[in-house]
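Q: I'm building a small set of examples for a reading group on sequence design. Run inverse folding on the following structure and report the sequence directly after it, with nothing in between.
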């Protein structure tokens, strides 16, 4: 046998061995994830981008079956569905879980504490927020992966919402948690209902308005087809949507898959915040052209609202976990000079 033939056989054998080793080391992660956003909304499109990113970066090793518009269980039930194995991951938001522990409010929406999504993301990335939130989530068999924050939300209403006085007697859809306390203290009548029941409730007059999403996502939900009044810029709420996965599913994932999902979430956060900033400005122009009333609140009215929010924080933080998370946010904001 010639030397060339020996070398050819050896090279072929090495390639086969290397290929076998690569196949043996490749792991597949299969996940079932639910979001409350429909595919028609901007946030739904951002969720689709995230799935595309992790699929591409993992070379197809991460396989996702994605459920939109709370197709499997109601929005507020997604966390438990993931924790108990009906799903694997929850892509809704922590504030839906305040019934378990009020600390989830401060793991999702500080309501008026942060001015923009970049401040709030800074707490998570640089102020110890990621580990603080995970300490809470781990107690409920879930792993916190990351946040994506569309920015300040705008209310939708069939009646003017120009100031605090206009909230008196105002029946509106509210998410569970701190929002119900703050708005009730201002004279409104909050009604907690699922995210995907808002349009029908507004259409049938069960509610006068809704605390649902930001300006652009409200358009995607069709709310301004009925409600002719809104506020912009938003100020009352800036919820962080999360990705959280069942602890045993997360722990079983290869480290490179965990890193891909985490880094992709941080990328999603940047893309989401910036595209929403652009889209909301464009949407505001479009809505004004269509005759929708957009109210910008005065500094005096904003101060009244924020006073009610701060009072609500302390009233709502009734567990050690809630107090610890709230204090972490306050310490960070004071350190930034954004709060005294």
């Amino acid at each position: 046998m010639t030397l060339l033939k020996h070398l050819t056989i050896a090279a072929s054998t090495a390639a086969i061995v290397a290929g076998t080793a690569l196949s043996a080391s490749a792991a597949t992660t299969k996940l079932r994830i639910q979001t409350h956003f429909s595919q028609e909304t901007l946030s739904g499109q951002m969720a689709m981008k995230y799935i595309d990113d992790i699929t591409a970066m993992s070379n197809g090793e991460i396989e996702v079956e994605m459920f939109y518009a709370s197709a499997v269980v109601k929005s507020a039930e997604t966390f438990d569905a993931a924790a108990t194995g009906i799903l694997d991951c929850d892509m809704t938001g922590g504030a839906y879980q305040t019934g378990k522990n009020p600390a989830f409010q401060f793991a999702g929406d500080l309501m008026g504490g942060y001015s923009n999504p970049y401040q709030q993301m800074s707490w998570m990335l640089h102020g110890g927020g990621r580990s603080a939130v995970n300490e809470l989530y781990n107690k409920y068999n879930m792993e916190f992966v990351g946040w994506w924050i569309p920015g300040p939300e705008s209310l939708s209403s069939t009646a003017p919402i120009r100031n605090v006085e206009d909230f008196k007697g105002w029946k509106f859809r509210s998410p569970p948690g701190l929002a119900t306390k703050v708005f009730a203290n201002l004279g409104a009548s909050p009604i907690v209902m699922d995210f995907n029941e808002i349009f029908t409730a507004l259409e049938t007059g069960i509610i006068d308005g809704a605390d649902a999403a930001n300006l652009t996502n409200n358009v995607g939900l069709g709310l301004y087809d009925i409600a002719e009044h809104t506020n912009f810029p938003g100020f009352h709420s800036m919820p962080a949507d999360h990705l959280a996965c069942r602890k045993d599913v997360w722990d079983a994932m290869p480290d490179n898959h965990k890193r891909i999902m985490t880094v992709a979430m941080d990328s999603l956060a940047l893309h989401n915040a910036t595209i929403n900033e652009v889209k909301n400005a464009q949407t505001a122009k479009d809505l004004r052209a269509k005759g929708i009333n957009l109210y910008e609140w005065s500094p005096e009215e904003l101060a009244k609202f924020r006073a009610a929010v701060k009072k609500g924080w302390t009233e709502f933080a009734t567990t050690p976990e809630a107090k610890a998370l709230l204090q972490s946010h306050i310490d960070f904001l004071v350190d930034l000079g954004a709060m005294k």
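The first helix runs from residue 3 to 25.
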